[in-house]
């Protein structure tokens, strides 16, 4: 067992963490898919409005590589296809059939998997529209099926606030997990299965873990793990797959049908009780919110530090497993004038929250306008990959891309911590992420 020690990062102690019980959500009437939330792809429709689809049928393909497709999260009629500016496909909605059906593909028993060769395995994964669960670093794009990865990292958990706990989503799924690890061993010579330090307390899962990661958020993030474990520059193009997606990939190959079940963590200060929910791919976010008062409620999909504000009428994203419910920013602290910042989650020691050991309340208020960098040095203190974010973002702003690259732009794991701690409220992480995307398109 290898220990990866990440010295820098930051853990926020927030109220509304999801409890570890797993609740089931009733079946929704419709499910949706948002192609515009998948970075880099150039989607082309494979379905039309009014057409019937089965779960697992391809809804879109990536024009850059039409073998890479994305599966329908349920069976029924395609009731709506929405477009944004420049005809970007923003949403595909499926009204679910009362009795659903799934597209069927050849199943691979464990014995068949043991003898299948790599090309046949890749072909089967592509045919089932599940190739897109693989991501390639440093840009987090979907890898080309013909490339051989220098390594694959499986991340069971990144310690991000309000994300599903591996103990919960892996419980009872040991067979699928073991099978998934077999698949990955067929695709790469170097497989890193990473878990939080101490393991997850499940002997069958822990037995297959190769690395335990200690440190604060984002220690378990695959890009962070890569930075601290890579052996050569070639490994910068390593792949990763998150634990829940590995279960979906394994479930698909074992049974020959696309598994639509998903475990989603719902947390945050406006969540009456943070919880894990057993639901399905593409579920309406309104169903996850439930019956609570939605006035002044902000939905944050994908993560506290690097997620995005999602519409109340939108659907669970393809890669998403977490939803944070937050007040929209008008929360006032009672008697706040005599205890300034007592409940405020902040990295700065300027607030009284430094003395408050209780979970803090997260909200959306920026508490002020953005300003110029004051060179306080907070951002490099939390950056897990030793970038100097304050110089890197300035190089990007000055269009000095070579300098930004030399400062480590491509090592940025997009964790969002630099933006969080910045007292000048500069969206550093966003600036670096966009610069990476522009660079990726330039060199493609
Ligand atoms: S530069 Fe910012 S977003 Fe990138 S890894 Fe460092 S702290 Fe995270
Ligand atoms: S945290 Fe913000 S103000 Fe401080 S050095 Fe970094 S960019 Fe500048």
Explain what you see.
With about 450 residues, the protein is α/β, with parallel strands linked by helices. It folds into four domains: about 25-95, OB fold (Dihydrolipoamide Acetyltransferase, E2P), CATH 2.40.50; about 105-255, no CATH class; about 265-355, Roll (Ubiquitin-like (UB roll)); about 380-444, no CATH class. It is about 25% helix and about 20% strand. It contains 13 helices and 19 strands. It has helices at about 110-115, 120-125, 165-170, 175-185, 205, 220-230, 245-255, 285-290, 380, 390-395, 400-405, 415-420, 430-444; strands at about 1-5, 20-25, 30-35, 45, 50-55, 60, 65-70, 75-85, 90-95, 135, 150-155, 190-195, 210-215, 240, 260-265, 275-280, 295-300, 310, 320-325. Helix 4 crosses helix 7. The longest helix has 16 residues, at about 430-444. The two termini are about 35 Å apart. The relative contact order is 0.15. The protein binds iron/sulfur cluster (2 copies). One iron/sulfur cluster binds near residues 387 and 417.
């Amino acid at each position: 067992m290898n220990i990866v020690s990440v010295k820098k990062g930051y853990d926020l102690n927030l109220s509304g963490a999801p409890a570890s019980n797993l609740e089931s959500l009733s079946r929704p009437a419709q499910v949706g898919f948002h192609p515009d939330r998948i970075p880099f792809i150039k989607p082309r429709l494979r379905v039309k409005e009014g057409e019937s689809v089965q779960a697992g049928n391809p809804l879109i393909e990536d024009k850059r590589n039409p073998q890479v497709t994305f599966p329908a999260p349920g069976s029924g009629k395609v009731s709506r296809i929405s477009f944004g500016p420049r005809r970007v496909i923003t949403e595909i909605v499926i009204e679910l059939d009362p009795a659903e059906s799934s597209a069927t593909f050849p199943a691979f028993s464990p014995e068949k998997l043991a003898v299948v060769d790599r090309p046949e395995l890749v072909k089967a994964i592509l045919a089932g529209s599940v190739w897109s669960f693989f991501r390639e670093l440093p840009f987090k794009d979907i890898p080309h099926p013909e490339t051989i990865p220098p390594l694959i990292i499986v991340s069971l958990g990144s310690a991000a606030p309000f994300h599903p706990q591996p103990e919960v989503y892996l419980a009872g799924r040991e067979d699928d997990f073991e099978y998934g690890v077999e698949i990955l061993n067929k695709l790469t010579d170097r497989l890193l299965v990473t878990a939080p330090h101490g393991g997850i307390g499940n002997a069958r899962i822990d037995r297959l873990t190769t690395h335990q990661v200690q440190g604060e958020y984002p220690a378990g993030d695959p890009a962070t793990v890569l930075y601290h474990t890579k052996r050569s520059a070639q490994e910068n193009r390593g792949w990763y797959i998150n634990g829940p997606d590995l279960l979906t990939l394994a479930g698909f190959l074992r049974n020959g049908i696309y598994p639509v079940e998903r475990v989603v963590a719902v947390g945050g200060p406006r969540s009456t009780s943070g919880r894990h929910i057993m639901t399905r791919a593409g579920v309406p976010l309104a169903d996850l919110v439930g019956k609570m008062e939605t006035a002044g409620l902000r939905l944050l999909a994908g993560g506290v530090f690097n997620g995005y504000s999602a519409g109340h009428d939108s659907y669970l994203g393809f890669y998403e497993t977490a939803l944070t419910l937050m007040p929209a920013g008008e929360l006032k602290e009672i008697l706040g004038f005599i205890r300034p910042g007592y409940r405020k989650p902040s990295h700065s020691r300027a607030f009284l929250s430094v003395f408050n050991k209780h979970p803090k309340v997260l909200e959306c208020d920026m508490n002020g306008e953005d300003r110029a960098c004051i060179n306080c040095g907070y951002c490099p203190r939390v950056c897990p990959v030793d970038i100097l974010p304050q110089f890197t973002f300035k190089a990007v702003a000055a269009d000095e891309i070579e300098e930004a690259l030399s400062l480590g732009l491509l090592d940025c794991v997009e964790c969002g911590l630099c933006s969080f701690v910045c007292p000048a409220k500069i969206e550093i992480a966003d600036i670096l992420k966009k610069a990476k995307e522009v660079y990726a398109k330039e060199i493609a």
